[in-house]
Known about the structure:
Elements (H helix, E strand, L loop, with lengths): L1 E13 L4 E13 L3 E5 L6 H8 L7 E6 L2 E2 L5 H11 E4 L11 H11 L4 H14 L15 H13 L5 E5 L7 H18 L2 E5 L3 H6 L2 E6 L2 E7 L5
Parallel strand pairs: 3-8, 3-9, 6-7, 7-8
Antiparallel strand pairs: 1-2, 1-4, 4-5, 9-10
Helix pairs in contact: 3-4, 3-5, 4-5, 5-6
Amino acid sequence: MKVLELKDVNKIYNSSMVKVHAVNDVTLDFAEAEFTAVVGPSGSGKTTLLNLIGGLDMPTTGEIIIGGTNLSRLSSSQLIDFRLNNIGFVFQSYNLIPVLTALENVEFIMLLQDKPKQQRQQRAIELLTQVGLADKIHKRPGELSGGEQQRVAVARALASKPRFILADEPTANLDTKSTENLLDIMEHLNHEESMTFIFSTHDARVVQKAHRVVTIEDGKVKSDIEQHPHN
């Protein structure tokens, strides 16, 4: 079943001198529980594509439909609600709130969803335990390593029980062991909770684990290959 459709999507940025066609006539479908890597050189349009799928940016033309909802037809407040309840984001720069503990960072999304305190705490502790940080829940981001911060970011992305996780270069700042841990966690969640993962990445280790690899160059889809992950 298709849970995400991109139909003839274009994104054009007009700067004073030049038009940049960041995403160029992209049509893609994603089924539930896919584990997809979007690859391509820097500046190829990977991040723009993820931002469009996540409703952080709107296409110049074309349609993005998630579970039957056309993102272009939502008002900005409806879009905020939609993102909050359907999409989890993992950024290269972690984007954690420095004054909050790991536990509070993970709880934050559920706070925005008006979940009761006990439920928030319980889910946050569960998720942080799942990502191997049970002993670090009261630490602030500055007291954690890069790999630990990225795992907090993953736990936070999962907190709202989203249908999609969009991860922009999630392993870019991580060493091999942290990358392997992170990918194992994501694979497990993809498998156990049927979450759909879409990564933009340069990392061969992520590509190797992906079930599908979409290659983008100059904003266009160059190839779209199903592959069996190598364990």
